Amino acid sequence: MVTRNPAEPVLEKQRTRAKPPSLFNVVLLNDDFTPMEFVIQVLQIFFSLEREAATRVMLKVHTEGRGVCGVYPRDVAATKVERVTGYARQHQHPLQCVMEENGT
């Protein structure tokens, strides 16, 4: 039988919860030069949107000046921004893609 010395502290389990990662919106910004069809193509390629959903986001960018393409953890959002920007430059379009911390 084990006897416990009352001077020894008793270790108790504590539950810790990992905080979920911060999420970021990936946003396309409107410009006067990038063709609408190219924006739809970008949304389909990099954000896996169906044509109808891509068209809705493109129209939001066109009419409101910006449109959210998706919400991702920081590293995924940064990669999406980098890839979209690089693809646009490769095709000689000034399309801007940025990431913003999600407020929710």
Summarize the SSE layout with pairings.
Layout: E1 23-29, H1 36-47, H2 51-64, E2 66-73, H3 74-90, E3 96-101
Helix pairs in contact: 1-2
Brief summary of the model shown:
Helices cover 41% and strands 20% of the residues. It is α+β, with helices and mostly antiparallel strands. The mean pLDDT is 92.
Shape: rod-shaped
Q: Give the count of helical stretches.
A: 3
What is the radius of gyration?
23 Å
Number of strands: 3
| Average pLDDT number | 92
Strand residues, percent: 15-25%
Give the fraction of residues assigned to helices: 40-55%
Q: What class do helices, strands and sheet pairing give?
A: alpha+beta
Strand order of the largest sheet: 2-1-3
* Biggest sheet character: 3 strands, antiparallel
> Assembly state here?
single chain
Amino-to-carboxy terminus distance: 55 Å
Secondary-structure element string? EHHEHE
Low-confidence stretches: none
Keywords for this entry:
single chain, 104 residues, alpha+beta, three-stranded antiparallel β-sheet
